[in-house]
Design goal:
heterodimer; A: alpha+beta; hypothetical protein PF0899 fold; 6 strands; 25% helix; elongated; B: 225 residues; alpha/beta; Rossmann fold; 7-stranded parallel β-sheet; 39% helix
């Protein structure tokens, strides 16, 4: 349910951008899904395959990149990757961490087709 | 025909996040603390609100927006105690900001100390949606098992307080309060743990004192900024 509404939001944004760019077709969408985004990529993909049929580009391809959970440790001040959603600095074992990346879903880019302007 | 890549790089929920931040700031300026209550179904969110309203007995101005997939049973339970608006999601497993905004319109203009948003019972999706709250509180009841913080890290990571409810049932279930709190603190070291029994009333005073403290902090920040 959550993934479906997320994909609907993404498609709405992408179609608006494509219109602004005067594209007549969207070839592909590149999405970055953070480890802690609370979103399951497989479900995003299947919701996308279902919902794209209703868009201007029913053969559009979705590429999902996984973004690891990254934090800055308040104690040793290193920027570290937190594996398996374990909220502990792998260097100094502190649990005082500020998340810097990997807790959101980002629309990285889209690939569009446009009519060539005649010279 | 030419093919071109358009870089975007924006967060998909950026608009919703911005709208939530604006609404939150508006509540801060009016001195209203917004509390988003989350839990599994049946952990006792509504019971906690009933116990809170009973404890204050009119001494604090509060209102509740309560989310459910169907029925207005929670609103009926709360109506004798507090202004309340039921939000029915029609199947959606969490509340989103537009529903909250609709609820606020239905509530009408009120001068409040506390606005409680009782989310749909679910430890997963509600964690991903900012409802303009200043305080996110997760309610965990002892019958659910002490492994829930470890199993639902996002929910506990994004919460500032953990209310452990149904303490009166502790003699009958294998739930280790310390283990649950310890697991929650591995995920969110600053989480405030408040054990309560909504049915018997113990711990409700500590919970209400915590809310007052948070309200005081919000209002201090209001004068400072």
């Amino acid at each position: 349910m959550h993934e479906r509404s997320l994909v609907a939001t993404i498609l709405k944004q992408v179609e608006r951008i494509a219109r602004e760019q005067r594209a007549h077709r969207i070839r592909s969408i590149r999405l970055q899904v953070g480890e802690l985004a609370g979103v399951e990529p497989i479900l995003v993909q299947s919701a996308f395959d279902e919902l794209k049929a209703e868009t201007i580009s029913p053969d559009c391809v979705l590429m999902i990149e996984h973004v690891p959970l990254t934090a800055r440790c308040r104690d040793c001040e290193r920027v570290v990757i937190l594996k398996d959603l374990r909220f502990q600095c792998p260097c100094c074992h502190s649990t005082s961490l500020d998340i810097v990346e990997g807790d959101t879903v980002r629309l990285a880019s889209i690939e569009i087709e446009e009519e060539s302007v005649p010279e | 025909m030419t093919v071109r890549t358009v870089p975007i790089g924006s967060e998909v929920l950026a608009d919703a996040r911005r709208a939530a931040a604006e609404l939150r700031d508006g509540f801060r300026r009016r001195g209203t603390l917004v509390v988003n209550l989350l839990s599994s179904p049946g952990a006792g969110k509504t019971s906690l609100l009933e116990a809170t309203a009973r404890y204050w007995n009119g001494a604090r101005r509060m209102a509740v927006l309560v989310g459910d997939i169907a029925t207005d049973r929670d609103a009926q339970r709360l109506a004798p105690w507090t202004p309340v608006v039921q939000l029915t999601t029609g199947g959606a497993c969490h509340l989103e900001l537009p529903l909250v905004q609709r609820g606020l319109e239905a509530l009408g203009p009120l001068e409040l100390d506390f606005l409680f948003i009782e989310n749909v019972g679910n430890l997963v999706c509600p964690a991903s949606h900012d409802l303009a709250e200043h305080l996110r509180v997760v309610v965990l009841s002892v019958t659910e098992g002490d492994d829930k913080p470890a199993k639902y890290p996002k929910m506990f990571r994004t919460s500032q307080a953990l209310v452990i409810n149904k303490l009166d049932l502790l003699p009958y279930v294998p739930f280790d309060v310390n283990a649950a709190v310890e697991d929650a603190r591995k995920i969110q070291p600053d989480i405030k743990a408040i054990p309560v029994s909504c049915r018997e009333g113990n711990g409700v005073d500590a919970w209400c004192a915590f809310l007052d403290e948070e309200l005081g902090r919000l209002r201090t920040s209001c004068h400072a900024g």
